[in-house]
């Protein structure tokens, strides 16, 4: 199977089996999504979704969050990984959005990555989910699944993975392909014991082909 054929198979499979894939983070607007994505670094979406309602109740918009103190916000995210840093990042992010962006969450990657706690992956998530821009956020799931299937070759970094995926996935499908790969990695192509028996991508998967040869 050629690389072009592999991509075609994978994209067709997901289009048929998960056409409406979307983030599992719960949010109502770009501000809430940005807070949730910042909190989700090295933390499960389930835990984030348990935590954000209290934050949004106390800080319903970016202006309220910009006025938060560390001591007030920290208890609300104590159960999240790296709560000290994330508390500082959230307050700093909100203050910069208010001061530099007139209270509007930026809509471009270059602007978003200026915010505290926002790296390329987070910026790609926001622009992809909110604005359907053709930006591919590469987390551990996307990185692992892409390499296993064979969508990427010798990609050593998230950026290398991102660029290879963008080269082959049609622009209009990038925003949903991001969710396809994440959810597949979260529930089927899991890290330690991938559920190959349940996977419909076996005909196109390099990892599975190796398993067959080894058996």
The percentage helix is 55-70%
Count of DSSP strands: 0
Uncertain spans, ≥5 residues at pLDDT below 50? none
Radius of gyration (Å)? 19 Å
* Element order: H for helix, E for strand: HHHHHHHHHHHH
What gross morphology would you assign? elongated
The CATH topology annotation of the largest domain reads as: Endonuclease III, domain 1
Question: What's the CATH superfamily of the largest domain, by name?
Answer: Hypothetical protein, domain 2
* Overall CATH architecture of the largest domain: Orthogonal Bundle
Keywords: 4Fe-4S, DNA damage, DNA repair, DNA-binding, Endonuclease, Glycosidase, Hydrolase, Iron, Iron-sulfur, Lyase, Metal-binding, Nuclease
Binding site for [4Fe-4S] cluster: 189, 196, 199, 205
EC number: 4.2.99.18
Family: Belongs to the Nth/MutY family.
Topology record:
Elements: H1 3-17, H2 30-39, H3 45-58, H4 62-66, H5 70-73, H6 83-100, H7 109-112, H8 120-131, H9 140-149, H10 158-168, H11 171-187, H12 206-214
